Each structure stands twice: as structure tokens, then as C-alpha cells.
Amino acid sequence: MLDSKKTIKNLYGACLLARFDRTGLTFFENNVEGFWRSFQAAVICAPIYVTLLIMRYMHIEIGVPIFIAIIICVLSYIISWFAFPYTMFHVSKMINRERFFFRYISAYNWATVIQLLALLAIAITTHNNLLVPVFSGFLTLALIFAIYIYKGFIAYICLEIPIGKSIVLVLLDFIIALLFEGWTLRLLQATPQISGG
């Protein structure tokens, strides 16, 4: 069950970090409990994710039955929430920052709520043609760029690493996200094979 008080506290910390305010770091616990509680952000993000998914794929031909498409998207969503933390568990050891691992993932997860809300706002604006297509596209790219700067700042602050290393972690995050996006899209567009006798 979601702890509303702690959830608000964590989201406030994520908002402060989005403003590049270092005090936001104090709103995240560097322990196992805070780490696992941060995955409650996935529950909050789920309806946002579904809305964005519908907007993204509504014009794409799906080559599998709807219930298969739902299973694919659900699995992709769940696995994607654990893929980067799992990777960072090993990377943090490689760069000698495992002592800050729980704090980093906690901030990273709660920050995802802020990021998806921003993406949803842009998606709704674009979907309803409230802005000219060219400007909407530019705004979307600018937001994505800002999100990765935000992620880099979180890595920089939480793990106490140089900017260069935080950029590498952002690139790693981007590659993992890209792989999952491609994997999901390929599965959704898969054409059932009909074997002849």
C-alpha cells in the first residue's frame, strides 16, 4: 500500500532535483526500505504509461491479438522498471559507488513520475493539435533532452561522481530504454506465421 506522506515527500524531493536544487537529495533514504518503496512509483506511473502507450501506438498496425499486445506491454513495463536498477547494481560496484546505490535508485525511480507527467502534458498538447506540428516536435525533443540532463544531475548528485561519469550513465540509460522500446515494438508488430500443410 502506498504511504501517502512518504510518497509526497519523495515526489517533492524529485521536484527539487528537477530544479537542480541539491537539498532534494535529503528527501531520499539510502537504505533497502527506501529502495524498494521507490518502486511504488511504478504504480503511480502505470496509468500515465498506458495513456502514453495508447497515444503512441494508436496509429501503428498491431500484428498480434489485443490480449497478446497487453501482455507484451505489461511485461515490457515491469521489466523496464528493474532493468536499469539491476544494471546499476553492478555498475555502482565497478565505479566504487555501491554505498550510494539505494539512494540513487530511489531518487531515479521517483523522478520518473515527474518525467512521465511532463511527457504526458506534451503528448496531450500534440494529440489535440494545440500547437503546430513543427513546434510540438521541437518541444518534445527539448523535453527529452531536458529529462536526460535531469537524469544526469541525479546521478551526479546521488552517486557523487564526476560529470563525465554521469554522462556515461545517462547514455547507458538511454541505450537500455532504446532496446526495450525496439523490443516492444517488434513484438507488437510481429505477424503471426501461418504454416502450410
What does this molecule look like?
With 197 residues, the protein is an all-alpha fold. The protein is built from 7 helices and no strands. It has helices at residues 4-18, 32-37, 41-57, 66-94, 101-127, 133-158, 163-188. It is globular and about 45 Å long. It starts with a helix and ends in a 9-residue tail after the last helix.
Topology, please?
Blueprint: H1 4-18, H2 32-37, H3 41-57, H4 66-94, H5 101-127, H6 133-158, H7 163-188
Cα radius of gyration in angstroms: 18 Å
How many individual helices?
7
Tell me the structural class: mainly alpha
Morphology:
globular
The percentage of residues in β strands lies in under 5%
Question: Short description, anyone?
Answer:
This protein is mostly helical. It has seven helices and no strands.
Features:
disordered C terminus; single chain; 197 residues; mainly alpha
